[in-house]
Amino acid sequence: MANSKKPGGLREMLESMYSVIALLFILVACVELCDAAAAFDVYRLIQYDRSGSPFGSRFAALNHHAASLHFPPGVDLSRTVLIIPLRELNITFVREYINQKKPLGGFLVLLPEVLSFKTGGNNQVHEKEKMKNLLAELERLLIHSNIPYPVYFAFENDEIDTVLADIKKNDLMGQPATATTGGYKFVIPTAEPKKVASPTMTNIQGWLSGLKTDGDANQLPTIAIVASYDTFGAAPALSVGSDSNGSGIVALLEISRLFSLLYSNPKTRGRYNLLFGLTSGGPYNYNGTQKWLRSFDQRLRESIDYAICLNSIGSLDNELWIHVSKPPENAYIKQIFEGLSNVAEELDLKVGLKHKKINISNPRVAWEHEQFSRLRVTAATLSELSVTPELLESTGGLFDTRQYVNETAIVRGVKLVAESLARHIYGHQGKNIQIFADESSLAVNPAYIRSWLDVLSQTPRVAPFLSKDDPFVMALKKELAGHVDEVNVQHETLEGIFTFYDSTSARLNIYQVASVTFDLLLLLVLGSYLIVLFSFLVITTRGLDDLISLFRRPPSRKLKTA
């Protein structure tokens, strides 16, 4: 009876030991991830293809140890994430690292809170300008490079500053984080990016009908006021474009509101139709504007006397520029320039004229008015920018936030355009008549401008990531509909040389991990303890001979047969 119980007891003992060993391996496997330090929202560098060539960050997932700029010379960073505050960033170092294609596990740039549209920033002018210039240079470098590792942006806060301080301390002591030494590990468990299939663009058109007298069979002339509303920047989830072109959108909405007051009364309704266009695809050669214009019937297109495109007018500089494609001698160009110049003098503004011919064979479109000019419609762009921007630049980058836009400048820009249009429509050119005088019922409303500027400064608007029914697009349509007689929406597919990829934001988990040496030592100690425990249990239940027999080689078949 005693012998029959031994195998059952041993079996139970072995099952218990197997459970303990399984638990041990689970604990050891979790040693690396047992001490979570923090978690943060991060925003990935844009990934896109242009004419088949890859640009931006080509990967999204991250699982590497972190290091600061104080890493030892010659160290291998192929499995390391560099975390660098913008304030400490050496643009020459980053440019050389990217151009020489040095291996890197990942790159995390910490942006100061002054740039965050969530916090509202502060009023340190010198600090803001310094950060703006540095970030503009970094952004230009990143969006035009092919980077074979994840690149993310995050905003500084107390938690991440504490983590960074620890990382710097270890690096300065010559103990950078590795699998051997331990340290901080950055983990972003996300799927690899996929192409955005058939990205859409939505154009919003508003129409204010002019006063037509009885028996007049001729079509009224039309003036168009246009602004592109979408953005492009190094991080799509942060590209709010407060100035480019949030200021232009706000100005267009306020101008439509002012003229809706005039046109609501037949006695003050002008003999011009007013066409308002909020267009998409601006950063991509104004692809949306092109499709919108080509949807016009010939009568409408021929009725347009001229179009004024609004682009980045939120700077407090006392000079704005009128960019045109037709020669300055053109009658409508002279009319536009003289009308704006006369009002500008009253506002203590200076308006300059920039003429740039267009090349029909070149697909590059630098200004929105050039799409009008290609269809032989007279147009001009009003902007604070004196120089033609390069492709994908000055389109609402990381530095283009609420803190860099001046409400007073937008109010002044609205007065400039609205007064010059009204004087032309009502035949008051050359007269010092203020139709939209301050303190009148037709005065420009700074509160309205401020409220919409706040909304735009918190809304990323990169076209490939805006759906047809995006709440922001619907809000724009609803707002414009409140000021005009008729609103139409046009959905188009973004076509051309660009392909975009998703995964624009993620959650970064930061773990404080132990070294592999510690893990191995822990495993050795626990393993030794279990072996001793196992041996003790076998000896006490079955004897030393049974323990030794467990490690003996079983007899061969020939020996058994004999």
From TrEMBL:
Entry membrane topology: Single-pass membrane protein
One of the GO biological process terms: regulation of signal transduction
Pfam families reported for this sequence: Nicastrin
One Gene Ontology cellular component: endoplasmic reticulum membrane
Classification via Gene3D superfamilies: Zn peptidases
Subcellular location: Endoplasmic reticulum membrane
Protein name (Swiss-Prot/TrEMBL): Nicalin
